[in-house]
Every structure is written in C-alpha cells, then in structure tokens.
Amino acid sequence: MTFNSLEFLIFLPLVVGFYYSLNPRYRWILLLAASYFFYMWWNPLYIILIITSTAIDYFAARAIEKTPLKKKKRKYLLLSLFTNLGLLFSFKYYGFFAGSMQRLLSLAGIEIHFPYLDVLLPVGISFYTFQTLSYTIDVYKGKIKAEKHPGYFALYVTYFPQLVAGPIERFDRLSPQLKATFRPTYENFSNGFRLILFGLFTKMVIADNLAPYVEKIYEEYAAYSTTSIAIGLIFYSFQIYADFYGYSTIAVGSALLMGVQLMDNFRTPYLSRNISEFWKRWHISLSTWFRDYVYIPLGGNRVSWLRWALNVFVVFTLSGLWHGANWTFVIWGSIFGIMFLIERIFQEKFHWITPERWNWLRLAGVIKTFIIVTLAWIFFRSPSVSQALELCKHLYLNLHLQNTLFPDTFVTIWLGLFIISDIWLFNSRFDQRMARLPLIARWLFYAILIFAITGFGGTDNQPFIYFQF
Amino acid sequence: MVKKILPRLVAIILLFLVLNELYTRYIYPIDLKKIDLADSLQLVKDSCNILYLGESSNFSFSWNDRDRRRISDMAADYFPGLDWGTLNKGALHAGIYLRLLQQIPAESKVETIVVTMNLRSFGADWIHSKLENVLQRNILLLTPGPKLWNRFRMGLKAYYNPGEYKRKVLLQWHFKNDYLGPHAPYPTAQAWIDALESGQSNPSLSDSASLSLAQTFIRLFAFRIDTSTNPRIRDFDKIVELAQKRGWKLVFNILSENVEKARLLTGDALASLMMQNRDLLVKRYSRMGAIVVDNLTVVDSSLFIDKNWPTEHYAEAGRKAIARNIALALKTFYPQVFDDVKKRTHFYTDFEHPAPGFATYPTSTRKARSGKRAIALHPGQSYSPAFYLTANDTEIRGAATLIVSAFYSGHVIDNQMKLVISLENNQVRQLYRVAYPENITNKEWNEISDSVLLKPGLRPGDLLTAYCWYTGTDTVYIDDFNVRIIPTDSTWFDNFAKLKNTSPK
User: Fold this and answer.
1) Residue B498 clears pLDDT 60, i.e. is over it
2) Cβ A455–B148 below 8 Å, yes or no?
3) How far is CA B478 from CA A426, B382, B505, in A?
4) Using an 8 Å Cβ cutoff, are A50 and A129 in contact?
5) ipTM metric
6) A277, A392, B88, B181: least buried by Cβ within 10 Å?
7) Backbone angles phi, psi at B314, to 5 degrees
C-alpha cells in the first residue's frame, strides 16, 4: 500500500479511529496488525522476512542483556548482524556482487558462473534492517535496555507510517511513544492533516508530474538539446526531493494523527551552502545512522587527517551502496565523499567559508551545492555507469540541437509554487509555519493545495523512488 | 474538539464543490483533449449514424497497401448517404467500448453501433496486459461522478493497475489453472506450452522462432471463455443492454485470426478451441439480439502483417474482406442506401478524403478545382495516386470500357503531362497506354482523358491502374480524378465521344 493511494486514504482514518476507540493496553495489537496488513498489501510472502528479522533481533537483544560475558554478548550481536545483513545481502546485493565478481574473475582468466537468484527486492528492506540493527547495537553498547514485550518490539520494527521508506527511527525515540497513552487532540489532528496534505501535494503534484519529463530525458538524451537535458537534470533533483520529502512528510503526518512524533527527514536541503550541510538536511535519519554506527566507530575525526579522510570517503561510499546494488550508487556516494573532502580542504587552507547568514556568498554556495548535487544525481538515476557518462557527454555534444522538450505550463507553475514554499519553510516544518498564518491565508493555501492534489496529480504510475531501497 | 472539527469538515466539503466546478469548467476540457479517444468521442457522438469501435485491427500497418484506409472507412464506402464515426486506439476492448458508449447522449444521432470483438481480448494475456493500465487510467475521466473526484482518482492511481510482478503472477496463475476442457490435448495452457518446449507436442517445430511463435499462440488463444467470470463477456453483455436501452442497432464484428498459422504450428486442437470460443460468442450474442459478423477465418494467412507475433493487423485485401462482411450485415438495416462497392462502375475523387479505388496519398491545399485539396506533381513527385482495380475488387466481368479523366493546373508544355492506363497480370504487362492533353489552353484547369477497351475484362491476377504522370520541372496540380467502367458491347464505341467528357462537376 502506498501513501498516495485510495486504499491508504481509507486505511489511515480507519486505523486512527480504532486506535483511539481502543483501550490503550491493546492498541499495540491494532497497530501491529495494521502494520503487517500494510506491508502484506504489497507482497504477503515477504512478511516472513520481517518476522524473522524481528524474532532474531528480539532474542539476540534479550540474550545480550542477560549475559554478563562480553564474548557472549558479541556472539549474539554477530548473530543479529549476520542475519540482518545476510538477508539484505541475499535479496539486494547478491546479484550485484555475483556479477561483479564474475567479471573480475574473468579478467583474471577464471570463468565461474554464480547461480542466478530471481527474487523480487522486498520493499523497504534497507530501512527496517537498519532500524533493527541500530536497536541491537545500542543494546550491545548498553545505551538502551532490551525490549521485553515482543509485541511492542515487533511494532517498533514494523510501525507502518515509517516501515517502507523511513525515517529510520531509533528505539529510544520511537518505542516510548508507541507505548504512551495518547489522547486525540485537535492540535495533533490539524498538524497531522496539514503534513499529509503538503506531503500529497509534494509527491502527487510535483514528483509525479516531473517524472515523465525526466524519464524522457534520461531515456532519449541523445535526441534533445542541452537546455532540455539540463532542465531534465534539474527536474530530477526536484522529483527525487519531492518524492522522498513528500513520503516522509506523509509518514510524519500519519504518525502524528496517533500522537507519535517521528523525526524530520528533510530540512530544505537545496538551500545548503555546502555538501556537509546538504547531508545534515537530506535524509537526516540515514545520515545520522551512518554517523553513529559507521563514522564514529571508525574513529570519527579523532584520528589522523588521512584516516579521517578515509573514514569520510568510506561512509559516503557505503551510503551510496545502501541506496542500491549498482556501481552507479557507489560512484554517486563517492562523488559526495570527494566533494566533501575538497570543500573541507578549501575551508581549512583558504579559510573560505560560506556564512550562516544570507548574503551573496551564501547564495553562491547554495548554487554551487545544487549544481554538484544535480550532477551527482545523474549517476543515481542512470541504470548504468556507461549511460550516466553518455548523458554527461551529451550535455555538451547536444549544444547545437534544437529539439527542446518543453515542460507543461501547469507543471512549471506548481514547481514554482513548490520552490517558493520550500524557501518559505527554510528551517521550519509545514505544519508549524501554517499554524502561524492568519486564517484566510491558511485556508487559501489549503484550497490551492487541495485543488492541485485533486486536479493536477501526475497520472503515470510512479512508485515512491525510495521504495526500491 | 468535535466542535472545532465539524465546521472545518463542512468547509472542506464546500471547498471541494467549488473546486469541482472550477475544474469542470476550465481544466476538464484540457484534460480531455490529452486523451485522444475522449476527444474523438466528442467529435463524433453528435454527427454520425453509424459508430464503429475498434482497436489496432482497424489501421493499415503495411507500406505495400495502396489503400491505407481503415476497415471502418472501407465499410462506409458501401453506405454513401450515411455518416460514419470511428473510435479506435490500440488495445481497446469491451470494457473501454462500454465506457465510451455510455458517454453518448440519448438524443445523439447515432443509430447503429459496430463493435469489434477480438477473440484474443477474452484471454488472460490481454486481460492482464500492460497496456491496460493506461486505458483504465484514461477512461476514469469519462466515469460518471464529480469530475474532480475522477481526476483525483487518476492521481491516486485508483484504477486497475497491477505492477509488473503482480501481472506476472496473475498470468502464471491463469496459464496453470484455467482448464481447457475435455477436448484439448492438455489440461492447461502451461502444460501445452511445456509440452511444446519438450518437443512432445509438435516435434516438427525445429527452430526456436517457430517454437516461440507456437507458444505465443497457446498463450494468447488457449483458453475457454467462461461466461460467468470472463470480464469481457460481462462488458459485452452490458453493451447489449445499453444498446437495447438506447434503441441502437448492434453489430459485433468477430475479427479474423491467423487460424491457419495456429493450426500449422500447434495442430488442430488450438484452431478447434478458437472455433469453439467463436461459436459461443456467435450463439450468445445472436440470441441476445445483436448481429454477429463472423470474420474469424475470412482473412487468408498471407494477409496478416505480423509474421512473428499473432495480431489482428491485416493487409489491404484483408481489411477489405472484413469491411465487406460488416457492410453486408449492415445492409439489413440500411437496404435503401446500400451501394455494393464490388458492383460500382463509377469511381471519383476530389482528393478531399481518401476514396475507394484510389491509393492513399498526401495532398496539397495550395490549389484545388473542387474542395480544398489537390495533388501536387513536381520533379520530386511525378505520379499522381493511382486508381487501381483487381478482379477481387469488382464483380464486373467480361468486356468493359474504361474511361479515365482528370483535371490539371499549371504550366505544361509538349508531352510533359500524361495519363497512363496500365494492365498487368501477375506483374506481366498486358496493356500500357499513355494519353496527352488534347489542347493545352490558358485556362486555370485543363482536362486530360483517355479510354480503353478491356476486351476480356478483368481476370484473376489482373491489376488495372490509371494515374497522371508529370515530367516537367514546375509544379502542376491534379484534381477531380474520374473513372468509369462500362460493361461494353461493340455499339459503345459509337457513343464514346459523347461519354468521355462526363464528369460530376
């Protein structure tokens, strides 16, 4: 079930309605059943994976907590890591690694054929795997106590608003909220609906309408002028942002209807003045996950400069690989790693900074960051490295071409509105901003959003981009 | 809290009503234009007597076709006094036809509906086809209810829209579980496909291309129509109901399939299964009051355009054969206006529209003797579209006189403008006659004409053509091309001088 579907628009009010009408002691049963139902709507069979992962992490964490022996603790932690990463590897990375190994070995003259696994990638596997991993690691480190109630733990793993595309929540933040006895409040309802409304606008009107244009450019780049390709690349920057931001906003809004505050996953990332800031504003739950569970354990910045640089590069490359099993994602992550390091060198050696306050220098930084990010998306979006490079080549090869692909007028208008509202929302959230508006302005905004969602939603079947991760 | 929520809920409902009005007035027409089918429906629903609904079978897909017109246009040739409307797009089926027909207002001029019945569309492969998503999406705009709500459903993808994976699973399920009946050699399509793969079913399928084609035939045609569950049956039934309610005359056109090829590749069993399904449809809908035109085996295997995939794309002669059968069925309703194309002796075109007997050609609007269009001839395009006739196209037999005339406009000197009449039999020239203008005058339009006696008349394999040929360096225009075929005895030549200038203008 996707958030931008009729099924979800029926499912959510039903769940919220039953949630508040139930005795708080039994609410977890409803939420767990609803979450499993939500996931099984896509593919019932793959619920087995989630249940397996849940069961192993539940028992591993309990065992880690019970045993006083460090060696045994480590054994249980490894069990959890191997199971979760093993599942992730089998379903997501096996084909990629097998193919790459095969090619590598054939270069050395060794012909080995790895068996082919024809399996469908389970939706959201990277998200819930990382969520459960953070739980067992935190229990191992003694940061949190293991959950005793298997039901609540299962709910933490599968809580439907954030199950398939995040935000990747930490146990100490989400679990207490799932156990809390929330009463329905007008504030939560109005803020929740505001976020859902804005999320639907972002996904359905912006992302889904930009998608066909982007698809055309990425498939037939050789036929279009440089201007068209450039517009296509910029559109993709907004498509993927609107897609994922829209999803996260609906997730936060849906959870808020039940009193749960999920973390914000985005904070106006395209207004970042450098790559470092961009990653503090883009997919925040993943960035902080990599910071806490990869970067810091590797030594963070308390190591030599060279080691630190290597740590940064490894984190960004792994983050790229997290997104997909393809060299394109590895390159995409590496670009950010390299750009991050270059920016840091510039800042340190030349004391070149882009200030917090808005002025021309910051604006130049924002434009530069946007260009880097937009060009990096080429590797993210292209099916192969060779196609990504071809597209880059055609950016200047097609300068003479006249074949321009003009975007639809309405799409341009809505995109303009989205960009303006994104600037307006700088460092704040839509619901909070709306609450501060006068009544008439607020309802005018609602009317525009409702009209856009109902009358101008993209009609091509475009699943959430991040579902594939 | 309820006190706070209720007025807001009412405000949202009121807001939706206002927005719906705004959308219906200003945006809906723009959205409708994006869906060509709906746009075409708006154009034809008030202006035609006969409405033809079809899919890709209606079109010409072969560059060898001289007449590239649609089946519906060819059928319309038989009813010169009636207005025809055509709605067609690839992969349409009963479900979409029904939605389109529901949009036709009760006071519309439409009297008769001709609906294509594609046997393949009853099978799982088409029911769960990828193309179905787009059709289902587009048709949402025509669904009854508030227009903004329907548009919202489009945005939510609230239509039959299974993903690639689900589609694959559904198809596999049907192939493995749909029972083919006691007379089929295998219980299910999958078993049949597997048997072909292992060489048990037809060991003579030596090459992989034939094997693949045979398996495709099984996938597309090995099914038994279950009248209680098949969605196409449900939709065709509703079409019959709707036609009865509106008082429309209803004709179902069962399309030709390459039964011969199916038999060759898979044996008699598949052909027999196709016939059984055909018989079921004919029986069911004839009983329900519709005229069912059975074209299943009308088109010869050689006239199917696609050789590597079973489709209903026919060469010109195939489309003509189907059109004729439809026209003969419609004759029951319109005996007064029926004009048998095969008995026609007068062919004329002013190039405003593609015309029967003449090859389809691009026209020019720069100059015209009648209407707005003519044919431009210049060094890059020396020949006008040919009038052509084969023994299959006409029932006129025996000696006949052919009188051909056309008008040309432009600077012509010497023998630059010619009118050619040619007769070939199986590509062997039997007759070749070139005529020149009798007088080159200063008039805007001059006539060029000729006549010839076809002594034995048209025989099988004959191809009679007539066309203008310009060898000058300027541009000349041709209009009002006129051909008469007159069954002839010896006395006709005495009156030739009088007859040859005859033209409808």
Assistant:
1) no
2) yes
3) 69, 11, 15
4) no
5) 0.88
6) B181
7) -110, 150
- What pLDDT is recorded for position A122? 82
Partner-chain contact B23 A451, CB within 8 Å:
yes
Terminal C-alpha separation, chain A: 16
What are the angstrom distances between the C-alpha of A228 and each of A222, A372, A379?
A: 11, 18, 18
Are A266 and A283 spatial neighbours (Cβ–Cβ below 8 Å)? yes
Selected residues 180-199 of chain A with any CB under 8 Å from a CB in chain B: 184-186, 189
At A140 the pLDDT is 92
CA distance B302 to B68: 17
Q: pLDDT (tens digit, 9 = 90+) per residue, A5-50?
A: 999 999 999 999 999 999 999 999 999 999 999 999 888 888 998 9
Decide if A10 touches B, using CB distance below 8 A.
Answer: no
DSSP-assigned beta bridge partners for residue B452:
B402
Q: SS in 3 state form for B269-321? A: HHHHHHHHHHHHHHHHHHHCCCEEEECCCCCCHHHECCCCCCCCCECHHHHHH
Average confidence (pLDDT) over B480-485: 94
Residue pair B257/B216 in contact (Cβ under 8 Å)? The answer is no
| Mutation to test the B interface, candidates A451, A456, A464, A467, most B Cβ within 10 Å | A451
Helix (H) or strand (E) run with residue A68 in it:
none
| Residue A273 backbone dihedrals phi, psi, to 5 degrees | -90, -15
Mean predicted confidence (pLDDT) in B102-127: 92
Spatial contact of B72 and B88, defined as CB atoms under 8 Å apart = yes
Chain centroid to CA B265: how far?
27
B201-210, B266-275, B328-337, B383-392: lowest mean pLDDT where? B201-210
Label residues B298-311 b or e (16+ Cβ within 10 Å = b). Answer: bbebebbbeeeebb
Task: Give this prediction's pTM.
Answer: 0.78
> Beta-strand (E) ranges in B120-273?
249-254
Please return the burial class of B438, using the count of CB atoms within 10 Å of its CB with bins 0-12, 13-18 and 19+: exposed
In whole angstroms, what is the distance from residue B91 CA to residue B118 CA? 10
Query: What is the Cα–Cα distance from A372 to A237, expressed in whole angstroms?
Result: 11
What does the block give as tokens for B373? 């269009």
Contact B262, B176 (CB under 8 A): no
How far is the C-alpha of A415 from the C-alpha of B236, rounded, in Å? Answer: 44
Q: What is the predicted pLDDT for the residue at B140?
A: 85
Quick check: B22 contacting A, CB < 8 Å?
yes
- In angstroms, the separation between the Cα of residue A205 and the nearest Cα of chain B is 8
Q: The tokens of B69 are what?
A: 């017109």
- DSSP letter assigned to residue A407: P
Query: Chain A contacts of B16, Cβ < 8 Å?
Result: 450, 454
C-alpha closest to that of A408 among A200, A203, A197, A214: A214
- Which residues in chain B touch residue A457, judged by CB atoms under 8 angstroms apart? 151-152, 154-156
Give CA–CA dist A202/A190, Å, rounded: 18
Q: Report the residue from B16, B137, B153 with minimal CB separation from A6.
A: B153
Q: Write the CA distances from B219 to B161, B171, B173, B212, B405, integer angstroms.
A: 21, 9, 12, 10, 53
Average pLDDT over chain A, rounded to an integer: 89
- Encode pLDDT of B141-152 as tens digits: 888 889 999 999
Q: Which of A113, A149, A283, A323 is catalytic?
A: A323
Type and span of the H or E element at B421: strand B417-425
In which band, very low, low, confident or very high, does the pLDDT at B490 lie, cut at 50, 70 and 90? very low
Q: Which of B43-57, B125-139, B212-226 has the lowest mean pLDDT?
A: B125-139
Q: What is the largest CA-CA distance in chain A?
A: 73
* Least confident among A248-252, A321-325, B213-217: A321-325
